[in-house]
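Two proteins were folded this term; both appear here.
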Amino acid sequence: MRGYNLTDLTPVFGASIDGLDTSQPLSTRTASELMQLLDTRGLVVIRNQQLSASGFMALAQSLGTPVVHPLNGHTHAEIPALMLHSNIIDNGKSIGYAGTERQWRMDGAQLATPWRASLAYAVEVPTQDGMPLGATSFASTRAAFDALAPGLRQQLAGLRAVHPYGTGRKRRATPYFADSGLTQIFKRGIEHPVLRAHPRTRRPSLYVSEACTSHISGLNDGDSARLLDELFLHLAQAQFTHVHHWQTGDLLLWDNCATQYRTADDYALPQRRLLYRTQLKGP
């Protein structure tokens, strides 16, 4: 991006931007360059931002089309596409979604057209002894694909995986047999290629995750589970990952085809956490 300092977060993915003030309207060129950077690096970190709820959404609208999350009971009272991730209790009621994403996941995988990107902004960050808690780890699905053994890459070519909303690893409780049809819960899933091409760069990625993928179509439950477990272990390797330790004012954007994430569940009230969150329509 012209006029700003860029630093790679890891050798294989991620970038941080210094000098960009997202509280001010972005020019069309800057917004385009920011999304191009996201396409190529998969994760963008911008620290020391000052965003209100409306300012956060104005930024999102300049980058794409924000969409309402299915967990719409945890959204901002006046801004439906702004989701609140928070453990804060107000008048005996949680102000937002208090759950943590402890398993690797890809936002929007349960949709026929997955979300292009997710944005999150840190309003309050829990700490202990001055150290931030609730770190979010990101993994590059592109780098994971690039490092696949040739034989495994060939085995995965043409395979499709099912992504039902809200099931993920619960597939263990409902065995699936390819020759007996799908159970009702699996019928609600969406199939995507295991090796998915990025919608804009066309670079392939490994498109399965612990929290979102129930099984691989055409395989019996045992073979599907063994292959997925192998892929999950492969994706979680340190050389493909980056751990982000949140600070108040952090703004993060991640590409939902090239990147997956999980969050540490290491905080509890009175340690308060509040993130603004939205997602952009794909592809």
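Next, the second protein.
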Amino acid sequence: IERQVGVIYISNVRSPKTLAVIPLEGRGDGLCVRDGILYAAFGQHKRPATGRDPEEEGYARGNGFAIWDVTNPSEPKQLSATFFPHRYYVCNQDFWDVTVSGNFAVVSHTFNGVWIYDITDLAYPRLVDHAAIPTDLPMGEMMTINDFTLNVRPLILPFDYTKKSYAPVTGVAAAEGRLYIAALKQELLIARAEYFSPPKAAEVKLSEAGEDFYIHNPGSGDASPTVVPTRGQTHAVLYYGGLLYVASGMDGIGVYDTDLRHLAQIPVPGFAMDIREGGGYVFVAAGREGVMIYRPCG
């Protein structure tokens, strides 16, 4: 979380070796590696801010993502660092992640919503879309609001949280023309997105932000996403092998087909908070119970 990514050599799992430490412009949380390229999401404060004084240079300015070439893991090379164009800091909702589909990177960033960047040129990512997740729930039900968050480490949002309310995004998955969005206290959201439909991607012009920086522009012209009821609270989502896997907290892992039919509910020891794939396996972060490794459904 302290503004860096470690590159670890694990050929010998009993004796891992650090090859390099990659500095980030903000505090790190989620990352993705594709074809020797590392994409790392970061948030909160940019250097040199410590996060203790809102008047510090860089306070609430360290939100965005970085791209690094790690084809030589011992000597990573930074290709770009992209920042969101506004100040943002919420100290108790730190869910940032990035996933890549084709020539697009999708950055999920809690109350900041979902950002889509064209990464055809890795040195110059280009913002093509952004969507926040509006909700009727009061912000006090989704983040801690007390003396600490208001005065000691003041929260900074690009909207008036007493008048508007958005759900923090906790994870995304992109595949086959759909963007799957997991958000706190919401059902699983599914939006159409031309960016992920082969063979070519469609550029969509951003809407005017007006008085509110947060905008909802699904790009496809469909004003509202499909809502799929899930068992338990949706925390993260994974599209893999033609199936959709949903991390549902104490309710384990939900499995759905591409027609969004519920196929199975897999119990998980602990609390299913995140889900990833790699090497033909599905990995589930289960809190104090550690990491669970499963074979995908077949």
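The CA atoms of residues 89 and 276 lie 27 Å apart. The first strand starts at residue 4 and ends at 9. These notes refer to the second protein only.
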